[in-house]
Amino acid sequence: MHVLNLQQDDEIGNLARAFNAMSVRIEASTVELGDRADTLADAVLAKTTELSTAKDIAEILSH
Predict the structure, then answer these.
(1) In terms of C-beta distances under 8 Å and separation of at least 24 residues, what long-range contacts does 9-15 make, across chains too?
(2) 6-30: pLDDT as tens digits
(3) Does the pLDDT value for residue 1 go beyond 90?
(4) What is the 3-state secondary structure (H, E, C) of the chain?
(5) Whose CB has fewer CB within 10 Å in the chain, the N or C terminal residue?
(6) Average pLDDT, the chain
(7) What pLDDT, on the 0 to 100 scale, is given for residue 28?
(8) High-pLDDT (> 90) share of the chain, %
(9) What is the pLDDT of residue 6?
(10) Distance CA 41, CA 54 (A)
(11) CA distances, 54 to each of 27, 38, 39, 41 (Å)
């Protein structure tokens, strides 16, 4: 994460604080997206396993 270390009490300081706040939000969003991607991958794997098992059972019962 990028952080600007400016302590000025003027427009540049305001800009630096806004940049730092934006940087924190981007970092939090990136972490959340990674967590959601992991959750989605787990759900896809579980559903794929479930469908594969159901297919195997259907094939066994059709013979």
Answers:
(1) none
(2) 899 999 999 999 999 999 999 999 9
(3) no
(4) CCCCCCCCCCHHHHHHHHHHHHHHHHHHHHHHHHHHHHHHHHHHHHHHHHHHHHHHHHHHHCC
(5) C
(6) 96
(7) 98
(8) 89
(9) 87
(10) 20
(11) 41, 24, 23, 20
Q: How far is CA 14 from CA 3, 6, 7, 25, 58, in A?
A: 13, 9, 9, 17, 65
Task: Phi first, then psi: give them for residue 8, nearest 5 degrees.
Answer: -70, 150
Tokens found for residue 17: 């604080």
Given a contact cutoff of 8 angstroms between Cβ atoms, the answer to whether 5 and 23 are in contact is: no
Structure tokens, 36: 């959601």
